[in-house]
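[audit] Reproducing an earlier prediction to check determinism. Same input, same settings, fresh worker. If the tokens differ from the archived copy the diff job will pick it up downstream; this log only records the rerun itself.
[audit] input (281 residues):
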Amino acid sequence: METADPFQTNHTNPDTGEIITEPLPFLFAIEGVCVAFFTLELIVRFAFCPDKCRFFITMETIIDIVACVPFYVDAIKKLSGNDSTAGNDFLSFLRIVRVFRIFKLARHLSGLQVLVHTLRASAKELLLLIIFMGLGVLISSSLVYYAERWASQPDDRNDFDNIPVGFWWAVVTMTTVGYGDRVPRTWLGMIVGAVTAIIGVLTLALPVPVIVNNFALYYTHAQARQKLPKKRKRVLVGAADALKTQSAQFMSSSISGYSTQSTNEGDNASIHSDELPLRTG
């Protein structure tokens, strides 16, 4: 929002006479509240992190720190009264890093998790696609450059002054976008353009089914996991009564064991007393 004209204000630096464009004050206040929240979250995560050294080298922490630094630098400049615009573009660029915080939602959204797993599983196919596209762009840009150079007349307009300019045209043509800012104007260049478009369609169509199959596989697996019944947590309801019951059962078993042992000892004693008269006789 701060890049839109309705949310910007202009003032002149009295020392240099330079016109400085800044966002409205309420946007700075809203950003301060958000950055304070993220800073507090960062401090709490650091306090409860078991490995302090590894905490600062994780990608999530680096993104949070880089996203919070521009606000504090702006706040220090405002408090010190420094209206210099040096480094403002770089700090504004660092604010783009805040967009990557959306990847934190991956742990809560199954769709993002499926997308990440699909890209990981399809790494070889994506690399193959990039290699094929690179070769096609290099060959097509070279061919269209020489085709336009050979077949055109001296007074004809030529959009391809060099081969690197043809890279952009080849990418746009192979991806079937077709902006039309640079086009071949000779019959030989048009033939090269038609062949480039066909090759681009075939190049994109080859690895895409593999990526789609991987996405369907992980998506089906994620949906099946969501439909599984969740495990119920065992809650100790009436734990004191359960302990009393267990102790009562233990006491009763010990008493019954003791009574059985005493009965067996009494029987053995009676047998020995019966045998004594026989031996004396």
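[audit] rerun output stored. Observation attached for the diff report: The chain is about 70% helix and 5% strand.
[audit] end
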